[in-house]
Every structure is written in structure tokens, then in C-alpha cells.
Amino acid sequence: MKAAMIHFEPVFSHFNQTFGIKKALLHTKKEIKEEKIKIPVYLVPVTEKNPREKAIEKFSSFLIKEGITHIILSNKAYKNNLIRKKMETTFETFTGTEFVKYKLYDILRKYAGSKGINLGISTLIIETDSPEKARQYILKIYKYVKKIIIKSENEAKFSEITKFFLEEYGLFIPVEQKKSQEENEILIQLDSMVEEKKVLNISSDINRSSKIIFGSKKKFKNITKYLDLNQMSLEFLIFQQYNNINEENIKRFCKDYMIKVSKIVNND
Fold first, then answer.
1. CA dihedral for 150, 155, 160, 166, sign (positive or negative)
2. Which of 17, 192, 244, 249 is the most buried (most CB within 10 A)?
3. Distance CA 66, CA 55 (A)
4. What is the pLDDT at residue 24?
């Protein structure tokens, strides 16, 4: 499996994306480097105005021949709807989910601090429709908060999960359909759903309003010319370095590069 960054710059002509596409494809690849991590960057050979769909399809076929299976779109490439749609349909992308799970305590501590809430005495409201997601996140954080509540329209779906935590950990977790935030309560959304105010949305939907930005002692100046240093781009870097994303590799990467939560841009 190989990954690459897909980038867009208005450097190709109408001729490049039509009759000259075969030659243009030979000039789409370059490489940047972060520490020991080599990052292939491919320029989409289309024009800024009226990008040709067939050119993107040929570009995708070219990437497949190059052995690319996973991609991350640069900020500029992501803004082009046609490029985003075609690329995300053809290739695997990075959601940032595993990285967020690993860094959940640091993320919540940073968020709580910005709200003047003591995480240790807080109530965490987890809004999700996925019992398995709830289980994974609760296991990461239950030791660090006073109480956990699951917010869901379908209470019955969570009966096995709540039974599991009660029997295994002595942890009573109520499930409520409607829960308004009160003092010392933090609401996080795990799924792509209608966002409320004062909510930390950590779903894999890149269009969510909450944005988690990370910092590193190494700065990653080369890649941050193209991307924010968020959970998706960090998973991409981990994949590039270890060819796999798991907790062990995330832990090693965070230790080597001293990855910390820098700021959380929210919808408050």
C-alpha cells in the first residue's frame, strides 16, 4: 500500500488536460520530505476554470499504476469539488479517527481548559448513534471524568454497552434522548450530525466546524505548506512512516515528534 498527497495549482493549460494529458501526467509528481518521511505529491493536471472530468479520471488511473492506494487532499485540492469527489471515490482517505481516540484525553483537557471547566469533575455527554464508537471512546476517557452520559435518539441500541460497563467496571452510564448542557458538562459529537453550539465535534467529517490543530517540536514546515497539522494529516504521516495506523505506531510517532494539541477552533 502506498499513499500520496494530491495537490492542485493552476499551472496546467487547457491543452494539458485534453490533447496533452499523457505528457502532462509525466510532470505531475514531486517529492517533499519531513525528517525521514518521504511524501510523494501529485499535481492534478487540470485547469482552475472548467477542469476536465476525463483528465481527472486519467490522472486517477495513472496514480493506480503508480501503486497509490491511499490519498490525502491538500487544502487547495479539497476546495475543488470535482477533484475531491473523484479522488475520494477512487482512493482510501485518512479520517483521523484512530489518532483522535489516542489523543482523546489531551483533546478534552485542552477543550475543557478553554471553557474554564475542570475535566476531573466534569460530566462528559457523548452524542452518537454507534454503540461501538461509544464503547471505544468511553474506555479511553472514563477514568478522567466524573460522569458519562450517552445522548442518542435510540436508547435501546445501547443496552448491551451500558450493561457491559456496569458489570465490568461498575460504571453506570445513562442514555438520554435529549440532554441540555449544564455547568461542568462537555458535549462531544462522534458522528456527522447537526451541530449544536458549544459542542466539540470529533467526527471524521472534514466539514465539521470543530478543528483540532496539533503542534510538534519538528514543526513539519514542508507539509504544512499544503495541509493543516490535524488528525488526518498526522495519520497520513504515520502511514507514510510505518505503512500502518495502529495505537503502537501512533504512540511511537507522538513520542518521537512530541505531538501536542495546539488549539481547537470551535463553533461557539
1. positive
2. 17
3. 16
4. 93
pLDDT digits (tens, 9 = 90+) for 5-27: 999 999 999 999 998 999 999 99
User: CB 33: neighbour CB atoms within 10 A?
Assistant: 10
Q: How many CB atoms lie under 10 A from the CB of residue 72?
A: 26
Query: For residue range 90-101, what is the model confidence (pLDDT) as tens digits?
Result: 999 999 999 999
Average pLDDT, rounded, for the chain: 92
Average pLDDT over residues 108-116: 94
Q: In sequence order, which residues have a C-beta less than 8 Å from that of residue 20 and are 6 or more positions away?
A: 13
pTM of the model: 0.92
5 has which bridge partners?
A: 41, 72
Full DSSP string of 72-138: EE-HHHHH-HHHHHHHHHHSEE---HHHHHHTHHHHHHHHHHHTT--GGG-EEEEE-S-HHHHHHHH
CB of 236 closer than 8 Å to CB of 37: no
Strand partners, 124: 148, 186
Cell of 161: 454497552
End-to-end Cα separation, the chain, in angstroms: 40
In the numeric block, the cell 510523494 is attached to: 40
Task: State the cell numbers at 45.
Answer: 493536471
